[in-house]
Design a protein that fits this description.
Length: about 375
Amino acid sequence: MFDISERMKKLPPYLFAEIDKKRKKLIAEGKEVISFGVGDPDLPTPERIVNAMRKAVGDPSVHRYPFGKGRADFRKAIADYYKKYSSVSLDPETEICVLIGSKEGIAHFPLAFINPGDVTLVPEPGYPVYQIGTILAGGIPYFMPLKEENDFLPDFGKIPDDVLSKAKILYLNYPNNPTGACADDEFLKDAVKFCKKHNLILLYDAAYHEMYFEGKRPVSFLSIPGAKDIGIEIHSLSKTYNMTGWRIGWACGNEKLVSALATLKENIDSGTFEAIQIAGVECLTGNQEDVVEMRKIYQERRDVLIEGLKKLKFRVKIPVATFYLWLNVGGDSLAFADKLLSEAHIIVTPGIGFGPSGEGYVRFALTIDKNMIKKAIERMENVLK
Ligand SMILES: *Cc1c(COP(=O)(O)O)cnc(C)c1O
């Protein structure tokens, strides 16, 4: 009775059930658990944005179905943001669609373009939703390993011809979760060329575009010549403005790709609450001092963690963006994470959970205070000696 569907059965298993059980047990015992686990900002949404939302929510005109590709003022703010920071021109009418968080758009997108049996090219280690969206649409993910020796960029030359002939979507995500790597101009140009040659859609996940260190803003995918011919970029306010709970993002780029996604969404969700979109206008058009401050805080945390890990004799690759540190622990990532949890009450995410090429690594999310990071280092010193 109530047998779940075949497509549900195909979803990847949840690997961290054991770790979760142990974590809950430790917390129930009153232990202080330090979590580098989930990539969910600990800092509050900036006050200016909360205030914009407070004000907006009182206006009854926003209480109705939002519909369409999103509010005109928010789409204009998005177009202006691309123009100002990335010199990219977007038509707010046809080339931008507001999302209920970027995860929603990423998960739904394949439903608009994938037929059963079609292949998608998915980076691994990677954000699980590329693979999940593909499977739910009846497609077949083909995994492209991201290796440290290739700066965590996929090697398109290694994809077999018979896979390429069935492939329809290429997923890329830079700045990258979980590795913290960025893509340069050259690579992105190659990616656009590759997609044109093989008739692929490029879905570019830019969730961490604003989370960079040392003042080095990452290249915007849409600023690459020809990107708009084949690509759609998915962006989010979640990480930049500490708004993971608000659920707001957008898709932009190729008109045909954007409009198919918008049509699909119209048939599923009827859009993003307009008061949140009004807060989104404030995000992009207000004073960005808070974002500058946020980058400083994450960079400080990153440096505290790096210094500590180096003292513990780890070989640390310094992340240039995102709020993750991808640490090579040289062996069984589940065993390493389990040891840290059992003996030091520290949570890190085992790399294997992001794909087979993640084995040998664990991911630290820098979403805890620097004093807690120092405390975690002291505990690690005791158990890893
Ligand atoms: C956090 C994250 C997202 C999702 O962000 P939402 O807009 O909150 O859905 C998308 N992609 C990657 C790689 C992420 O890490």
